[in-house]
Design goal:
429 residues; alpha/beta; 3-stranded antiparallel sheet; binds 2-phosphoglycolic acid; binds zinc ion
Length: 429
């Protein structure tokens, strides 16, 4: 089959926040087509690939005409004739064509959509599901999911300071069971909010709106909801994405809800107190992205008990992962393809983390679409963990449901990663 790229087409579609985003369709000489879509973050690391927007007043400045022009002109011209099976070569072409560290010329939204479209076309040309195309004969596991129950921070008008309050069904025996356990907790949390007179719809990723009097009350309510759902002894545990870059500046952490300000040390005492009082097994971005000392300090105090994930801090960058590992800051990395800007760089970040024994969590963004490629990356790369938001809204459910389909396809050979997917150092016997 002729897998040379014949054409590359960018089109404007719309994401889960009703904002425009970039979709790329790649057609191969054989007629096979692949598609890639750029997601969009709201709490972004300052070093991630640039999400190129038009600015101005139309569509609130979120227009993607410039990114589409990147796809339809330079990217299309450069990729035409390339072999879609050579993902590394295609991505190298994109990286060189852009020529900047953060894909600021073409736009990371243009490059990731193009890169994913080529990957999808290659899988289809082989007649394989994307996860199988990526895995080859290697072992795969259904990922341990992180599912948001309450959404805060930038995803809920900063109603509370912490961004994500999530659960991890550690003791499920299958992905299917993990989803059923999640459904029970999500429902229990909704009922509890209702009883408290505080159920007010959902935030950007489908988690319940965080109408709480304090950040800790949110954690307490999540722990109580897990209990309400009948889960005991940590079989369903809590994960936090603090996303502290959103409220930490120059070593000062300001909780708007409590009207309290802390230095790094004082702030870490607060987070550590939460870890002691609640069944928390994973904490993402506990301090701001530039607070490397804080990251190291937190990993030193808590890294043997909880997974410490770098998101804004590591921005899916292999070199940053290596540096952070050498400094013992974090023990896990969030893997977001659009932070890197190409599939190859995303995979390199994941491999860098795996080499040092870290946990790896493939993650969607708060602005998403019906696209489910992320699930295939998590399974095909055997990442062990997956984070795609809450248990409501179809841009989220599409991904959980896709993982169920993969589990079904694997049949008796399917294995659920479970608690073993947490970073190696966490809770080692
Ligand atoms: P974002 O945040 O997609 O809104 O940037 C998600 C996260 O911080 O994990
Ligand atoms: Zn995050």
């Amino acid at each position: 089959m002729n897998t040379a790229i014949r054409s590359v087409l960018g089109r404007r579609i719309w994401d889960s926040r009703g904002r425009p985003t970039v979709e790329v369709e790649v057609e191969l000489a054989s007629g096979v087509r692949g598609r890639g879509i750029a997601p969009a973050g709201a709490s972004r690391g300052s070093n991630e690939a640039i999400d190129l927007r038009d600015g101005g007043t139309t569509l609130g400045g979120w227009g993607v005409d410039r990114a589409l022009a990147s796809v339809n002109e330079p990217i299309a011209a450069a990729l035409r004739g390339h072999d879609a099976m050579d993902q590394a070569g295609v991505d190298r072409e994109l990286i060189e064509l852009d020529g900047t560290k953060t894909k600021s010329r073409l736009g990371g939204n243009a490059t990731i959509a193009a890169s994913l479209a080529v990957l999808d076309a290659a899988a289809k040309a082989c007649g394989l599901p994307l996860w199988r195309h990526l895995a080859g004969e290697a072992e795969v596991r259904l990922p341990l999911p992180q599912i948001q129950i309450f959404g805060g921070g930038a995803h809920a008008g900063r109603r509370i300071d912490i961004q994500d309050l999530l659960i991890m069904p550690l003791d499920a025996t299958s992905f299917d069971q993990a989803m059923a356990m999640t459904a029970e907790v999500y429902r229990a949390a909704g009922e509890r909010m209702h009883r408290m007179g505080r159920r007010m719809g959902v935030a950007d990723e489908g988690g319940w709106w965080p109408a709480f009097a304090s950040n800790e009350e949110a954690i307490e309510t999540l722990a109580a909801s897990i209990d309400d759902a009948g889960f005991r002894n940590g079989e369903v545990a809590i994960a936090l994405d603090v996303a502290a870059s959103e409220f930490g500046r120059e070593g000062r952490y300001t909780l708007a809800l409590e009207k309290r300000e802390y230095d790094t040390e004082g702030w870490l005492k607060i987070v550590e107190g939460w870890i002691r009082r609640y069944p928390i097994v994973s904490v993402e971005d506990p301090v701001a992205e530039h607070d490397v000392e804080g990251m190291r300090a937190f990993t030193a105090i808590a890294g043997d008990r909880v997974q410490v994930i770098g998101d804004d801090y590591l921005v899916t960058d292999a070199e940053r992962v290596r540096v952070a590992a050498a400094e013992a800051a974090c023990n896990a990395v969030l893997i977001k393809p659009n932070q890197a800007g190409t599939v190859t760089e995303t995979h390199e970040a994941l491999q860098a983390a795996r080499r040092v024994g870290w946990g790896t969590i493939v993650s969607a963004r708060s602005g998403e679409t019906e696209d489910v490629a992320i699930v295939h990356l998590a399974v095909g790369w055997n990442a062990g963990q997956l984070k795609v938001g809450s248990f409501a809204r179809s841009e989220r459910m599409a991904k959980w449901n896709e993982a169920l389909r993969v589990e079904g396809e694997l049949g008796p050979a399917a294995r659920y990663a479970g608690r073993r997917a947490l970073a190696r150092t966490v809770g080692d016997e």
